[in-house]
Amino acid sequence: MTIGLIDIDSKIPNLALMKISSFFKSLGEEVEFVKPNKEYNRIYASAIFTRSKNKCEELLNIYEDKIEIGGTGWDLDKVLDDEIEHMKPDYTLYEIEDISRRIKGIGTKESKIKKATDIVNAGIGFTTRGCVRQCGFCFVPKKEGDFKQVSEINDIINPKSNVLVLHDNNLTADPNCIDKLNEIRDRKLIVDINQGCDVRLVNEDIAKALSEVRHLRSIHYAWDLMKFEKDVIEGIQTLSKFIKPYRHMCFMLVGYNTTFEEDIYRFHKLREFKVDPFVMVYNEKNDRKLKHFARWVNARIYKSCKWEEYGPWIREQLSYNQMSFI
């Protein structure tokens, strides 16, 4: 029996597919990513992003009842069987080239290969599922339910590397947060807290524990809603006592329920604390102003010109105004 897998849109190794691979390999089955013109007894696909729904529908038309599709981008209610969920990921599934091809942006082929090597060799997984928050824009509460413990740090370590990609949705809400961070420190692991930290919950003990582990990249958190300004700012100030602000990144959700004036305000407020913002446009909303704003912020163009001086947006407005008079 041959099992085919399709990773529709993941930017890093897809954990669900890795567990499916482990499960079927434990039964003695052959498992591989789907190859053209090859027959498979069963195919499993995963989509992370909702923008991939059209691709999912195309796959259903091609493979019909032979394929099963899961993932947040396709079906929030579909989950892995318990037996598969608790499998150790198949760390041999992905090749370095699979991931390096997915790395976008500026960079040499060699730098992308190096980054891909770190990612492929990393341990990856969750120690908790769910979240204590009920944010209206987030899929986690519906898909994963109440906050709960699901595994230990030791369960997700990849023997090939000391890098750990931790997918926990809200590590700072975990009653065992400090113990887990101390274990990561004591094991000399390098951690990527992939989903970020809830900075509103950061106290001095958590901030100190976060400062004592090695981070694969900047420590990141979010400021999505204006009503949480006070708590977010207090969390940033506490974290900054232990981790310098140049090592922070704050994700800013725009296009959900904030005005553009509030978006600009949050940007300037974060820069007052020397924190780098990163703009995320809600549901990839087709708003040209927000897309220009995201590029101005995320490409760090704000360091060379003010928003009011940003040429591409100025030119687009002029072009629109001229067209409206034709």
Nutshell version of this structure?
It comes from Tissierella carlieri. This is Radical SAM protein. This protein is of the alpha/beta class and 326 residues long.
Task: Please write out the topology.
Blueprint: E1 2-7, H1 15-26, E2 30-33, E3 42-46, H2 53-63, E4 67-70, H3 82-85, H4 96-100, H5 109-121, E5 123-125, E6 128-129, H6 140-144, E7 148-149, E8 163-166, H7 177-186, E9 190-193, H8 204-211, E10 214-215, E11 219-222, H9 229-240, E12 248-254, H10 260-272, E13 276-281, H11 288-298, H12 311-324
Write out key terms for the chains shown.
four-stranded parallel sheet; 3 domains; 13 strands; 326 residues; Transcription Regulator spoIIAA; alpha/beta; 36% helix; globular
Principal-axes geometry comes out as: globular
- Strand line-up across the major sheet: 2-1-3-4
Number of domains: 3
For the sheet with most strands, the description reads: 4 strands, parallel
Question: How many H/I helical runs?
Answer: 12
Q: Give the N-to-C terminal Cα separation.
A: 64 Å
Helical content stands at 25-40%
The average pLDDT is: 92
Spatial extent as radius of gyration: 21 Å
Work out the number of β strands.
13
Question: What is the structural class?
Answer: alpha/beta
Strand content: 15-25%
Give the uncertain stretches in residue-range form. Answer: 322-326
Secondary-structure element series: EHEEHEHHHEEHEEHEHEEHEHEHH
Organism: Tissierella carlieri
Protein name: Radical SAM protein
